[in-house]
Amino acid sequence: MTGSNEMPMPGTEQEHENVRTPTGLRYIWKQLIISKTGIFGAVLVLLVVLIALCAPLLTSHDPGAVNPLNRLKPPAWLEGGTAEYWLGTDNLGRDMWSRIVYGARVSLIVGMGAVIVSGIIGAILGLLSGFYGKWLDAVIMRVGDAFMAIPTILFMLVVMAIVGPGITTLILVIGVTNWVPFTRVVRSEVLSIKERDFVHAARSIGAKNGRLILKHILPNILSSFIVICGMNVGTTIIMEASLSFLGLGIKPPDVSWGGMLSDGRQYVATSWWVATFPGLAITLTVLGVIFLGDWLRDVLDPRTDTNKK
Question: Domain range for residue 233?
């Protein structure tokens, strides 16, 4: 039957329409405009991204430059503060604003980089587990259970203590230890989609397993995959800050919000700004990511009616 792979099967297009969610730019923009949560999250995330990208233009001080004569200067609006250091300085006289701005770069790089690593590992294992099932599914799920049984932060602490700190190392460690949620979400989607009529129709006309996975299943799990990626960026930023706070994440001269929190914890009572501003930066960034991820779930989940909000 020459060319039979190109013949449309009855009901196939309808099945695809039932599974996929409209994701055109016009549709997404329309849903964003009518969502207060989405707008708030998008503005916060966009602001952090722009600050990170424009760091050299927004700062006039080297974030690592030590000046003991200016140590613990208060913000500009407090007594003793100056416009030159409008968010004040830390215990080594370093400009707080410059350090927060450059710290945004590290948080975004680690947050998105680790999610990419986790997402790739989780998507591959989830597709294989859900599609092939049997012994392969059992092995992947039991390995995932083993990872979940180990406290994540403890496992990362041990690995970082052995391997040593660094941005690349941190991305790999967080990425490799955080793949299980991705695998479980992808697996559950695959288990449902592979029983759809359009998959059976494609198989009946001779489609190979690789084509079924890449052509028919993968496009239909992208919405759920994008949502979990967005939700995990915030978690990853907190993980990076936690490891840096404990001294096993980002090391100088690189700047980390978690490291800034660690430096300022002993000055909370006397120089509150040293710990407050990096903590506020972490809170607002993660809050923006969570709100944006929540909006993405509403838009991309075909079972959610966004018009109700």
Answer: 36-308
- CA dist 107 and 288 (Å) reads 13
The model's pTM is: 0.81
**Count of domains for the chain:** 1
d(CA 59, CA 102): 9
pLDDT tens digits for range 52-63: 999 999 988 899
Give, rounded to a whole angstrom, the gap between the first and last alpha carbons of the chain: 50
Please list, in sequence order, all residues whose beta carbon lies within 8 angstroms of the beta carbon of residue 303, skipping any fewer than 6 positions away: none
Longest Cα–Cα distance in the chain: 85
User: Which two three-digit tokens encode residue 254?
Assistant: 């690189």
Give residue-wise pLDDT tens across range 246-294: 888 888 788 899 989 988 888 888 899 999 999 999 999 999 998 988 8
Q: Is 2 helix (H, G, I), strand (E, B) or coil?
A: coil
SS3 of 184-203: the string is HHHHHHHHHHCCCHHHHHHH
Distance CA 249, CA 157 (A): 9
Q: What is the CATH number of the domain that holds 219?
A: 1.10.3720.10
Residue 12 lies in a domain: no
